[in-house]
Amino acid sequence: MELLTFKIILVLSLFLLSLTVAAYSTWAERKVAALMQDRYGPNRTGPLGILQPLADGGKFFFKEDFTPANADKFLFILGPSLVMFISLITGAVIPWGKTLSIGGTSFDLQVASLDIGVLYLIGMVSIGVYGVMLGGWASNNKFSLIGAIRASSQMISYELAMGLCIIAIVMMAGSLDLKVIVEQQTHGKIWGIIPEISGLNWNIFYQPLAFIIFLVAALAECNRAPFDLAECENELINGYHTEYSSMKLGLYMFGEYVNMFISNALIVVLFFGGYNYPGIDWVTQNWGENAAGILSIFSFLMKTFFGIFLFMWIRWTLPRFRYDQLMHLGWKKLLPFALLNLLATAAIILAYEHFTK
Q1: pLDDT tens digits for 12-36?
Q2: DSSP 8-state symbol, 106
Q3: Residues 135-187: tens digit of each pLDDT
Q4: Any alpha helices (H) in the chain, and if so which ranges?
Q5: How far apart are CA 36 and CA 317, in angstroms?
Q6: How far apart are CA 47 and CA 249, in angstroms?
Q7: How far is residue 10's CA from residue 13's CA, in Å, rounded to a whole number?
C-alpha cells in the first residue's frame, strides 16, 4: 500500500512537472530569443513576464474551436491527443533521482522500473509519429499533409541514428534498464586513468561522437530548428497543424515542449550520469540517503534545464535547413558515423574483455 501511494504521488508530481516545464519553456524560449536579438521579451504580464504562460493558456482555452468541414473529426481530435499522451507517458521509465527513505523504506524515484526501459522509450517515440501524421492527414489540407509527410519522414530517418547511439550505450552498460545505465556511471576511473570520483564516470567521456549524433537526432525528433521543416511558415503556412485552433493546437505545442523536456532528460540519463553528481557517495555516507536523494533530483533537473537552454540557443542561432539537406545529413552523415561508432564500441569492448581475462 505504501508503494502504491508513493507511485501515485510520483506520477502526479511528474505530470505536473512536465506541464509546468512545458508551459514555462515557452516563456524561456521568448526570453532566450530576446537575449539573442537584443530585445526585452515578455515583460508585461507579471514581473519579467513570468505570468505569460498562464495568459497564453487562457487564450488557448477561450479561442474558437474550429474543425474543417471535410476533416475526419475522430482522427482530427486523436492526432494532438496522441502526441500529448505519448509525450507524457514517455517519462515513466526515466529515473529522476536516487532513492528516498520514507518510514524506513527506500523508494526509487522512478514510476516504472522496466528491464526493457530503452525499448519502451524507442517504441513510444516511434508511436509519436502517428500523432503528427494523423493530424496532417485528417485535416484534409494539402499543406498540412505535406507537413505531416515531412515530419514523419524526418522523424523516422533520424530515429535510425538515434537508435544506433543508444545501442552503443546499452553495449557498455550490458542492460536495457535505464536505472542500470545510470548506476553504471557512478563508479570507475574515466578511461581507467583519471582518479575515481564517485558520480562522475559519465558516458560522455567514452561516447562523445554518439552524444553529438544523438543531440542532432533529438533536435530533429522534436522538430526544433534548424530541423523545423514540418512547420516552416514560408512554405507550408504552419505545417501539419495549419487547420488546428484553440486547445487542439495547444496540445500540439505543449507536446513539442514536453518532448523537448523528456529528450533532454534521456540525454542526461544516457550521457551525463543521470542523477549522479560528483561526491554522491560522500553525501550519502555523511548526510544520509534523503539528502543525497534530494540533491540527485536537483542535479538531474539542472542538467536537463541546461539541455533545454542549449536547444533554444541552437534554434535562435542556426538558419533552417533545406529539406534535401535535412535528408542528406540524416542518411549520408549521421547514420554512417553512428554505425562506425557502434562497430568501434563493439571492437573496444571485445578487446578489453580479451586482454583483462
Answers
A1: 999 999 999 999 999 999 999 998 8
A2: E
A3: 888 988 888 888 888 888 888 888 899 999 999 999 999 899 999 999 999 87
A4: 2-36, 52-62, 73-89, 117-138, 142-173, 178-183, 208-221, 233-236, 246-271, 280-287, 289-315, 323-328, 335-355
A5: 8
A6: 27
A7: 5
